Fold this protein.
Amino acid sequence: MAAPPQEKSGEKPAVRISTPTGKWILLTTVLGSGMAMLDSTVVNVALPTIGRDLDASLAALQWTVNAYMVTLAGLILLGGSLGDRFGRRKVFVLGVVWFAAASLLCGLAPNVGVLIAARALQGIGGALLTPGSLALIQASFHPDDRARAVGLWSGFGGVGAAVGPFLGGWLVDGPGWRWVFLLNIPVALVCAPVALRHVPESSDERAHRGFDVLGAALGALALALVTYALIEARSGSVVVAVTAVAGVAAGVAFVVVERRRPDPMMPLDIFASRQFTAVNLVTLCVYAAFGGYFFLTALQLQVVVGYSALEAGTALLPTTVLMLLFSARSGELAQRIGPRIPLTVGPLLCATGLLLMLRVGKGASYVVDVLPALLVMGLGMVVLVAPLTATVLASVETARAGLASGINNAAARAAGLLAVAALPLLAGMGPEAYRSADAFNAAFRRAMPLCAGVLVIGAALAFATVRRPAPDCRRPQCRTHGCVTAPPLEPTRTTTPSDSAPPKASSAGPAS
């Protein structure tokens, strides 16, 4: 069977979900984005075993998480633009192959340095395939089926996020932690050929010819340098101080470049919307707390409570299961009562869940101590995440909804990686803290109130700044969501001959 014909900008996509081609498109996009989503959740569970096997310090474990997040957060806005210009299927398949090759390198890593470098390469692949999978759905399906296709994509992705920690724990305790990464290879061997055979190519011939590569590089560099400075700050060396200054300078340069470029990756004028700016500040607070919490909790359950990797992964399931079951209903409630109350109450519930985690120590009972904290945390995320996405979309004009979602997603990932870098320092964790149950438990008990405090700040910001959106504003299509590392990406409307508006950017940023 020959590859499907290319869909060009201005042609009306005609694929229906009920057709074989529609089912193949859903399969390959779910598999592709699922790889990246799984890796963002399963690795935490594997960290203690990775540390023991590779004789890694706590800082090296932090980098194992953050190297992936630095490149993913820094480049995800650029990834969608590349697909618009060069072909969405082509860039998506490139991302899948790149991700699989980096996963192979992770699985074969002889030492922690190679593992960290391979994780950074994984993040580049993730930045290509994550927005690409959603853009393929938006560009391929008939308008009547598009919302349902996006909903199925986000729902299956949420299931993958929920299964991730359980699957990761099973692999770590069974064939070994390397299979957490090697599992991506057979998935890619299915995903890429199916995409090439069954998914129609699409692009936007009217997309701009230039790309904000400099802006993307400066953004990723700033995140990397600041992350390094935070992780190594306990050494107090001159190199750390110089790196911190260089990171701030790179961040300033990023802002200058974005302000001056005619087609920036992140147009700064979008922040002229005070509601959009305020909601992104709330996002920074809540996802910084989430990032620190999930990083440390996976370690606490294994190092202090004594769980196996499988038990720790299974223990974390209630939070994501609650999000999968009730996120859509939470979004509907927020539409009726407005986002201010959910965005205030949600972080406060999450803060309560984190404080309940103070009961989780040596000899803790899962039913009495661990489960109540996870349920309260999950309830808070249910109340919070869907209204957060809806408010982001409602804060800007419809033409920029995809860009707004991409910026919000990148902000959440950046907040999480900075929290993973800074929280062990603020909590007084030493380089070998995870090897001692007593030392790690003491630091964990200092870290949870810090995370709860950041959530309270987020709740206060939401209460003071968030207002009810206009009744005709854009509503989220990704109504079912289970990922704990970032809010869902939302698609941009695909133009057709009947549209009078100019072509829009891809789901994760402008074609710049």
Notes: The mean pLDDT is 86. The radius of gyration is 21 Å.
